[in-house]
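Section handout 9: paired folding examples.
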Amino acid sequence: MTTTSFESIGTPGQAWGPNEVAIWRARQRRQRRYADDVVAVIDTLRPRYTVSEYGRLDAVADGYPAEGYALYALSSPGWQAHRPSVLITGGVHGYETSGVHGALRFAQTAAGDYLGRVNLLIAPCVSPWAYETIQRWNPQALDPNRSFSGAGGTPESAALMRWVASSSASWQMHIDLHETTDTDESEFRPALAARDGVEHDPGEIPDGFYLVDDSEQPQPAFQQAIIDAVSRVTHIAPADARGQIIGSPVVSPGVIHYPLARLGLCAGMTNARYRTTTEVYPDSARATPEQCIAAQVAAICAAIDHVLTHTGD
């Protein structure tokens, strides 16, 4: 559970400044350990992958690692230019737990079926401070998933963009693993309104899994292949009474469109033909934490299978 800490910060109707951000940050508490939950798993994978430290985030404050956070990525050995190159990212929003553990679980298990067939790059936890504090924002109260444009608007996005650019890969696919939670509506969207000095407009949290396709370059068959696979693991979110999911029209069951690059979303950071953002619903009475992780793995596998089937189309 996140810490509701925005209600008494600043003046209603006025955007936060540096002082308000500092107050908000001081109220966050470390609730889990990146080193234990993520880095320790990555260490077990070193015999099978090339592990890269692609950046380091500064120390935040007392109570957090004094050395800051090392950012790690896994890549498959023996890259070959003729193979499709696949980028998998998780933990852009650190509180979205199955995104982090879905990426790690894939690396531990199903990825073995694809080594030698695709070039894999996996960044399982883009925002480690947010993972530890179970937060959407980074320590500067900025959303990394609105910052993947230009040189990167946050340290987290900038480090990942530099690393991906340095690979010189020609990307065929990028899947970015996320969740939509009840705390999006009870905590994070009200916090965003308070930070920006605007009134919160309540929304509806969809019950189930859905995908965000790119409105500028939609790939409906790719999205449908993922939906079909995930539906065997967990339920797909229905449209609301207005035919929408989180305020966007449903274009096919469980699929909505966003302009990924224009919004600075992580899934829009490359020119990959096949791009998507997964959204798991971990608060559903119909889904367990294990199902949420399994849904992310199923989504990754279906996405890669589609790319392998359609390479050269």
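Moving on to protein 2 of 2.
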Amino acid sequence: MGVLSAKHAIDVAVEAARWAPSIHNTQPWTFSVSEQEIRLKADPDRKLRAADTSGRELLISCGAALFTLRTAMRCEGFEPVVRILPDPDRPSLLATLHPGAEVRPDESTRSLGCQIEHRRTHRAGFADVPVPETLVERLVRAAMEEGARLTPIRSPEAVRVVAALTQAAQAVQAQDQRFSLELIRWSQPPGSPRRDGVPAQGYPRRRVPTDPDFPQRDYAWRHDWGSQADQRAATAVGIVVVLTTPGDSRQEWINTGQALQHVLLRAAAYGVSAAFHTQALEMALLREFLRHELCSDQYPQMIMRLGVTLDDKEMVRRSVSEITE
């Protein structure tokens, strides 16, 4: 393989990175691309000013894009060479990546790569279909490979605690106009031509609670938007998991994003989707409570439910030209 093949791998990787998950589908990243290197940068204009004052969720989103770049490049036959936070004087430059040694992608890597454009975020209950324990163990190992810990919440009492904290945070945020206006900024009306934010078909118009209830964001706030799909048969909670890190640095936020995408792609390969619940983690007191009481003093970075759904919603993403410079 030569220079042209390496350049092709770079182009394919950037195309793939468009499909990484991000908070409210804000897609808070830009890429500087040359024939030798990709530079991943944070886009501060897409930061959530009310919900994400520290930029933690922005960096988690960008970390998911970084793992997608790495996976796509491996699928193209190159081992990616990555530097995270390479320049302290340029805090928005999160990582650089270039093709290294030629490699033959193994079956596991190809499996992840196949899911990049097919993975979906779910925003409702799951079908009453169990997630295999062997898969949960694989997801735990996947997170560990990226420097994070994925912990399934096994105790019904602990699941109710996490649900209650999510309910409390959602209720508080719903009374705060800053949160509501920020949310509606990233909620698309039906027929919207936008290629970012959450499309109207991506969330239910009328929410059907799970038991215990894990409320979703109110993307239909004061609007009659959302999917009219019948949700009566999809009320199972699924498996509640928490993604944590030993510390709470920018490096660990990026690591969290890489672990998150690794877990999501691995789960998607087995027909399992994720529903995200970050409301409680956006409130400092609730996040600290979770850290001390349920997370063994590890820092909670993401709360998810994992389960099976038959939905196949459309995803929207900006074009490569819109995210490159």
